[in-house]
Specification:
Layout (H helix, E strand, L loop, with lengths): L1 H34 L5 E4 L6 H10 L5 E3 L2 H6 L2 E4 L5 H11 L1 H4 L7 E4 L1 H5 L1 E4 L4 E2 L4 E7 L8 E7 L14 E7 L1 E4 L4 E7 L1 E9 L2 E4 L7 H12 L6
Parallel strand pairs: 1-2, 1-3, 3-4, 4-13, 5-7
Antiparallel strand pairs: 5-6, 7-10, 8-9, 10-12, 11-12, 12-13
């Protein structure tokens, strides 16, 4: 009886190991099909981004993102995330000190700026009278004192354009925390209303930007990140 019990236990463990191996292989194939080949996904780590929560959001999708400020690694990546939290002039100074202010505008693969990252991709920001990277032809302004600043919490996105919002519904809710905004402009691919209608997402060529935090916006935000991973890579 003891031998029979041990044999059954061994067979059960062997079956579980086989299933685990299948799952690992499936996740690896998913990573390959979504993330692409080559340099994979990179999150720019320059000292002003909420990078861990973004990295974990991609991990939930089965994709391991690399945190780096290495220029060669960033250039070689298939997709690039440009995060940002904090104050614009301080963040721009950190980009300048690492030389990334010159590198980011020259990237040819899909790049996604998040929150302050998107604002730094614009021409300028009223926050700290900051000159931006000039990717998006719009100047970032501050909300007036007629509303609670910062805007903090959930708000809807509308007028959706671009493959970044594939399968995302009009008026889906996203999570936002910001005191400054990009006014509506030709490069707007989503808008939000808070005192005024403003651009909550932008696109120019391979560059994308979102004012909201997809990594904190539940299943809808997760779908937007997945859509970004599926964008064509020109690198």
């Amino acid at each position: 009886m003891l031998i029979k019990f041990l044999m059954e236990d061994l067979l059960e463990k062997s079956f579980k190991m086989t299933e685990k191996t299948k799952n690992i292989k499936s996740n690896s194939e998913k990573l390959s099909s979504i993330g692409g080949a080559g340099g994979g996904l990179v999150i720019i780590d320059y000292g002003a981004g909420n990078i861990k929560s973004i990295q974990f959001a991609f991990k939930r999708l089965g994709v391991e993102a690399v945190l780096t400020n290495n220029i060669d690694e960033i250039k070689a990546a298939d997709k690039v995330i440009f995060p940002g939290v904090g104050e614009a002039s301080s963040a721009m100074k950190m980009l300048q000190e690492s030389g990334l202010d010159k590198v980011i505008p020259t990237l040819t693969q899909p790049v996604l700026g998040i929150c302050l990252g998107m604002q730094l991709m614009c021409n300028s920001s009223e926050e700290g009278n900051t000159k931006g990277l000039g990717i998006f032809n719009v100047d970032v302004k501050r909300f007036s004192n007629h509303v609670k600043v910062p805007q903090m919490g959930w708000n809807v996105i509308t007028d959706l354009k671009s493959d970044l919002f594939k399968d995302i519904k009009e008026k889906d809710f996203m999570y936002l925390v910001h005191s400054y905004y990009a006014p509506t402009c030709n490069e707007m691919i989503a808008k939000t209303d808070y005192e005024v209608e403003y651009a909550s997402a932008l696109q120019k060529d391979n560059f994308y930007g979102v004012q909201f935090h997809p990594e904190k916006s539940g299943t809808v935000g997760s779908k937007i990140l997945e859509n970004f991973l599926k964008l064509k890579t020109n690198n």
